[in-house]
Amino acid sequence: MKRFQHLLGPEGCGSLGHFSRRTLLGAGAGLAWLTPLSQLLAASSEEKSSSGRPKSVIVLWMQGGPSQLETWDPHPGKMIGGDTKAIDTSVQGLQIADTMPRTAEVMHEMSLLRCVTSKEGDHERATYNMQTGYRPDPTLIHPSIGAILCHELSAEGVEIPRHVSIFPSAFPSRGGFLGNQYDAFKMYDPTGPLPDLPKRVPEDRFQARLGDLDILESSFAQGRRFDLEKNKTLHRKTVDRATTMMTSDQIDAFNIDGVPTEIKEQFGDTPFGRGCLCATQLIETGVRCVQVTLNGWDTHANNHELQSARAGDLDAALSATIKHLKERDRLEDTIVLCGGEFGRTPKINPAAGRDHWPHGFSVALAGGGIRKGVVLGETDPEGEKITPETKHAVRVEDIHATIHHALGINIDKDYQTPIGRPMAICQGTAISEIIADA
Amino acid sequence: MWLKNIAFIALATVVLASIANWLLSPPKVEAVDDPHVVVSDDFQATQEAVDAQFHEVWKARDLEPAPQADDLTIARRISLGLTGSIPSLEEIRLLENRPEEDRLAWWVNHLLEDRRYGDYMAERLSRAYVGTENGPFLIFRKRRFVTWLSDQLMSNRPYNELTQDLIAESGLWTDHPAVNFITATVDQDGTKEPDVARLAGRVTRAFLATRIDCVQCHDDNLGGDLKQTDFHELASFFSEAQNSFVGIMDQEGKSYEYKYLHAEEETTVPAQVPFNQHLLAESGGTLRDRLAGWVTHPENKPFARALVNRVWAVMTGRPLVEPVDNIPLNGSFESGNYPAGLDPLVDDFIAHNFDLKRLIRLIAATEAFQRDSRAEHQITAQHEQAWASYPVTRLRPEQIIGSINQASSLSTLNADSHVLTKLVTFGETNEFLKRYGDAGEDEFSMDGGTIPQRLLMMNGNLVSERTKQNFVRNAATRISQLSPDNKTGIETAFLCVLTRRPTEHELEHFVHRLESDEVKSNRTQDFEDIYWALMNCTEFAWNH
Questions:
Q1: Same structural domain, B292 and B409
Q2: Assign residue A167 a region: left if phi > 0, alpha if psi is -120 to 50, beta otherwise?
């Protein structure tokens, strides 16, 4: 019974990690693209201890359900392995699919769960499950990781939305019962300015318009539900936040046009790569959670070709994200999670595809509070289901508990839902094997 | 020469004054004919039965109901629910010239006869039937489908007959638009045949408000008693449907094979319904005919419940049972313990041969529909929950764009509008929906607005285009130039955008704004600013 396949060999701390942040900031051309504000924030944050900085999460969301067999958990030479070959990684003895060579080089920065199970095999329900840690419940909507993080951490100094979804999927991250103000801000390819930000009229007229709006809002509030704005419409709040955002320098973080070409190329010249680069900028500016979606993993037909293509996009962007966060001394404050709804069947179907498989799939984690180079669990050579009794199944809610723990959020805390029902932040148990301070 | 100039100025003044008079004075009221509304005794009886059930709930929960809303507020709700936009100034004038006692009933009838009703309701219903995707290229004709549906609604075709067509019609997707219900599921990548599983899911959700999708892959393990076999036996009714060059046809005897979970091999799945089996005809017609007969059987109450719940939701923004397409068949529902209002409306709907327009008239006449969303006493979430006050619900994106367009025109935008206006509106609507975010099938979610939506309303093209100086197209400009005085101008702007008159405080504020020089602007710009504020406030974006 092998709980651990490996504990990390190399220390996982490249030489760059030993540079101080200020040294890096002053390092010249390579970092010149950092916005002055980002530099300011970064410099100011250096005053605090690393552990004192609020933490952030980047979720790389593999929409459609990536195949564990073509990515993190190849079975070369076996019937279930298909055409995928395995390659060595920077963790001794660990192999991943040859579709992800650059990721293999940074595996020592990551931990890998190869034994995740869930009970949801439908895209919408499984997305909900993975993003909230709860299974769908018709009576209420649970908040996603980003919503909880924003709810728990102060918004001081951040003038842009703190929960962002780049290329949002059909089922985006939501604030749920915490409120719509915690919904993810949706954006697309981070080139060019965000639409609708410039005002249409001069400042004095704009201010007069806002004054008119105040009069109308007070009229509307009279005699209606006392908590209408706070618990339902959030209209005035949204206007305020939109207005603040319109005038903020921080909006530069939504745009990667000024980034040197060579850095863009490291992330891959794909929308997903640009999204990941943007995510690192947003995190540096104070955004607490960024989800970047890579679509196209639902490969019921022609599995190998499609999965390999997606894995190629992921490989460049994921490895560059890890490296950049590390280089900028942000990896210890940022958790990077890479996963999708579920895995795909060991059996290859007659259309050369793989179908949905929530019975044993892989999720990768890296960053602050997560141990490095740990691989937990294993899949059966024949791809049999992982059950709670075998292979040390990791439940979806356990991943959530682990992330919350790493973020310093008390998972024993109960939220009071609008229908008066107490609801735990998380139902799972933190996975002690991959927690850095366990 | 100066005489000529004076004559010209005089003439221009007269012309402008006439235009102003024509635009801003109450339009001539049509001859007051007999009220269109025929209120039969049993209409009254059903209405009273619904009201009585709500009263019972309010009493049991110790909730003091809000008073009845004023006519214009109720008219706005009805208009948003039936046409997807607010009333025009022209319509408000017409409405206010009706005798008070039949005003609202007349208003409902007026809208039910307007093509906007058919088009809007068809769009809303079609989401439940075929989703919001464009569907398979060529063989799925969404536009034809929605237009056909709109025609059926305008002629008030009994809803059971309409549904039977959707489920069982055969022929080409152009000549027999109802078959698009089937062709929407044709899978272009795979079999190029109708997807029996998706059809089973659609039929149960859209027509029976029952979700059985989750037993497609395995038996219900969440406490329900539905089996995987239930799902596929229902799907089997569509096994004969096939897609060919003559459209959707039925190949008699074609069977449905499926390999159940844990089964060794595929088995032939018989066609069977998951409940009320005794209502299924044993023979006669195609499999789809038999299924349609079962779904719409007067004793198969989930059918009527599904529609009543959905129409209530379309008209108010919130269904009686949430989610809209999941009314339990068991638990308290099994013993007939339904939420207030549902049962009497369902019985009436069935007893009156699935008359949709009658159902709409009934809903609009109920006390629950006509409660105010404000009161002298404190309104709470519990009031809203029990319909003791009208729930404030967010307008759907298409209602927002419909209302922006209508508010920027003094006359009614409908089928009689100029073709150019219709074309521009069509293009703008699509662009706006893309940016604002279509609610898709999840159209009754209670989410508040988002920052991108606010930015779009505050700085986006559409609001800017519809409020800026444009005498031909924009109401803001016309009001600024033609209103005889500031007070009338402000009042007209409020009626156009918020379907109400300003309060004294608002009037004072906005008149002062027009008369002061604190901000450098001209009168047209002032009205542009006022329109901007009216379109950006909570009141405009929410039903209340």
A1: no
A2: left
Does residue B404 form part of some domain? yes
Q: Is B541 on the interface with A (CB under 8 A)?
A: yes
Mutate: best of A123, A135, A218, A228, partner B, most B CBs <10 A: A228
Q: Which of B392, B519, B530 sits opposite A228 (nearest CB)?
A: B392
Q: Do B451 and A246 touch (CB under 8 A)?
A: no
Whether B51 maps to a domain, the answer reads no
Element (H, E) at B430: helix B419-436
> Which of B296, B327, B346 lies at the terminal end of a domain, its last residue?
B296
The answer to whether residue B277 is domain-embedded is yes
A262 at interface of B, judged by CB pairs closer than 8 A: no
How many domains is chain B built from? 2
Interface test with A, best of B228, B378, B537, B540 (most A CBs within 10 A): B537
Of B348, B339, B353, residue with least CA distance to B44: B348
ipTM over 0.95: no
Domain range for residue B181? 137-143+157-296
Report the CATH number of the A50-192+287-434 domain.
3.40.720.10
Whether B343 is covered by a domain: the verdict is no
Distance CA A235, CA A214 (A): 11
CA dihedral A90, A95, A100, A101 (to 10 degrees): 50
Residues 164-223 of B with CB under 8 A from A: 189-190, 213-214, 217, 221
- Quick check: B454 and A239 CB within 8 A? yes
Closest in B435, B464, B541 to A200, CB measured: B464
Burial label, A299 (beta-carbon count in 10 A; 0-12, 13-18, 19+): buried
- The single-letter code of the amino acid at B357 is K
| Chain A residues in contact with B189 (beta carbon < 8 A) | 301
- Contact flag B537-A217 (C-beta cutoff 8 Å): yes
Same domain? B276 vs B413: no
Residue A112 distance to chain B (closest CA, Å): 29
B170 shares a domain with B277: yes
Q: Which of A 332-371 lie inside 8 A of B, CB atoms? A: 351
Which pLDDT belongs to residue B382? 95
Scan for tokens 């709409």, then name that residue.
Answer: B360
B291 plus B397 within the same structural domain = no
The pLDDT score that the predictor gives to residue B2 is 63
What does the block give as tokens for B264?
């060794």
pLDDT of residue B332: 73
Chain A residues 211-240 with a CB less than 8 Å from chain B: 212-213, 215-217, 219-220, 222-229, 231-236, 238-239
Q: Between B384, B453, B454, which is nearest A225 by CB?
A: B384
Cα A182 to Cα A161: distance, rounded to the nearest angstrom: 9
Q: Could you tell me the residue ranges of all domains in chain A?
A: 50-192+287-434, 197-254
Q: Are residues B408 and B279 in the same domain?
A: no
> Average pLDDT over chain A, rounded to whole?
85
Span A369-424, pLDDT tens digits: 899 999 998 888 787 788 777 667 899 999 999 999 999 898 888 888 766 678 89
Q: How many whole angstroms separate alpha carbon B20 and alpha carbon B488?
A: 12
**Could you give the dihedral angle defined by the CA atoms of residues A219, A225, A228 and A230, in that order, rounded to the nearest 10 degrees?**
110
